[in-house]
Design a protein that fits this description.
By secondary structure, the chain is α/β, with parallel strands linked by helices. Helix content is about 35%, strand content about 25%. It has 2 domains: about 200 residues, P-loop containing nucleotide triphosphate hydrolases (Rossmann fold); about 60 residues, 2-Layer Sandwich (Alpha-Beta Plaits). The N terminus and C terminus are likely disordered.
Length: about 325
């Protein structure tokens, strides 16, 4: 198994990461969910944890947010030791779970004020914070309406707004866009980017590979209770073979000349398509075009294909790309 980085680097440790965990283990009965995972999350970044259902994503979030206790391992969140000072950790973080914490029987504003009370804000400060966040998340017009009348996207925005009442610098988002339509999902992405631009650290679990590709500074793939690989999206894509340049032709004579000039390539004589293995880098493309120029051939269309996160996910987990269902991680849920 290819592992780009399975443990925090020395550079990450000296940079005082927002989250630093080593050797986290967790079992539910005889079912091992986390098998000694290491994580390092830089401040003011988006870190995404990918994995199939039952991989342990939600358990990792619950441990790091003090909701459950690890069987073994150590972690520091926001600079505080998870075991020695859980109250300080709770004061530094916000958590938005897979399922909405919004109370549909009261208004959006009342949900916000309830969170302000839980954070021991004064009545005046609570109203100020609530109004500001409702405005920021484009919910001011619906603030006086029962939350049960909100759309799925509005409820998710209210969920995150409630998470921000205490001003956390680290936020755990556990599959925050599951079940949302594409427009609402893109709105949520914009909100996450704004949070990070303001210095907030986001720990994101998701089953949308495009979401991790769009948002995450670093991605870890969790499989079988272990980190199978970790790196930037581009780094992960480079560990999967299959990159190629595709050349399409309409003239059979030009196709045959190109095939002869390029040597060992994958041919599709019926479609008049040649596939040349490679990463599609500038130097590689220039060499390819020069070889075609020597036989005075020009392709009708040239396409560079590089592996995407779907390919990475399949290669590392042996699973098909997960289809978000809105249900919790199967193994974790059935093990409780």
């Amino acid at each position: 198994m290819n592992v780009l980085q399975s443990s925090p680097s020395a550079a990450a440790r000296t940079a005082d990461p927002a989250i630093l965990a080593t050797g986290l283990r967790k079992s539910y009965g005889d079912k091992l969910v986390l098998d000694g995972i290491d994580l390092s999350v830089s401040r003011g970044s988006v870190f995404s944890l990918l994995g199939p259902n039952g991989a342990g994503k939600t358990t990792a979030v619950k441990i790091l947010s003090t909701l459950v206790t690890a069987d073994a391992g150590e972690a520091r969140v926001g600079g505080y030791d998870l075991a020695a000072d859980p109250q300080a950790v709770r004061a530094a973080i916000g958590v938005t779970g897979q399922f909405s914490a919004v109370d549909g029987l009261i208004t959006g504003e009342e949900n916000m004020l309830l969170m302000a009370d839980l954070h021991h804000l004064s009545r005046r400060e609570g109203r100020r914070v609530a109004a500001g966040l409702l405005e920021r998340f484009d919910l001011a017009a619906a603030a006086k309406k029962p939350a049960a009348t909100y759309s799925g996207g509005m409820k998710r925005r209210l969920d995150i707004a409630m998470t921000l009442v205490g001003g956390p610098r680290i936020i755990f988002l556990d599959e925050p866009t599951t079940g949302l339509d594409p427009r609402s999902r893109h709105t949520m992405w914009g909100i996450i980017r704004e949070l990070v631009a303001g210095g907030v650290t986001v720990f994101l679990t998701t089953q949308y590979l495009e979401e991790a590709d769009q948002l995450a500074d670093r991605i870890a793939v969790l499989h079988g209770g272990r980190i199978a690989a970790e790196g930037t999206a581009d780094e992960l894509k480079r560990i999967v073979p299959g990159g190629h340049v595709e050349l399409r032709f309409t003239d059979p004579a030009a196709y045959r000349s190109a095939a002869s000039a390029l040597g060992e390539v994958q041919r599709d004589d019926e479609a008049l398509v040649l596939r040349v293995p490679g990463d599609g880098g500038q130097r590689e493309l220039r060499s390819l075009i020069d070889r075609l120029d020597t036989v005075s051939v020009e392709a009708d269309r040239l396409t560079v294909h590089t592996p995407d996160l779907d390919d990475v996910f399949f290669a590392l987990t042996g699973s098909t790309v997960p289809a978000p269902s809105g249900s919790p991680d199967t193994l974790e849920e059935t093990s409780r």
